[in-house]
Amino acid sequence: MTKTRSATIGRETRETRIEVFCDLDTSGDAEISTGVPFFDHMLEALGRHALMTLRVAAQGDLEVDAHHTVEDVGICIGRAFSEALGDKTGIRRYGSAAVPMDEALVLAAVDISGRGGLTYDVQLPIEFIGTFETSLAKEFLSALAVSAGITVHLHKLAGENAHHIVESAFKAFARAFAAATQIDSRIGGVPSTKGVL
User: Fold this and answer.
1) Residue 135 resides in a domain
2) Residue percentage of the chain with pLDDT more than 70
3) In the prediction, which pLDDT does 1 show?
4) 101 touches 139 (CB < 8 A)
């Protein structure tokens, strides 16, 4: 029987209480509750387009702002991804996607490298989408990438509407991540000359 690639991660601090579940091998189902409506919308898109089950329940100090909640959710999702991937046997490792949304177009590239980091070239024309501070998109993705041990590049190629740009970025990342984590039966072990990722 094939081991399921799933994980549950919990994190509690003075600022946040978060629980995340992911299963990397489903058709895309998300149940999200963070108290930040636009962020919920983006996480739903992440689960749907990465073809994973993603459940996030978060409570944070939103009376201060959404920063702690968004960053800590990124940490938890990243840790869940890392645990679900296990030793990474048979994964394709690399994935990329260019996702348009109306006038916006964002390119994402992912390497499941074991070395976490984000390169983010996604300029946005406004500071808020609803109550969501647009700079938090980068904070979330950086926390996720570092905690998951994956290299992520995101580059805006076109776009004027901030909602379209951020949504395109999340969907592009999701699809690149799905491609990189896909199992390829031709790969024995892990796709690295080092023998480990």
Assistant:
1) yes
2) 99
3) 38
4) no
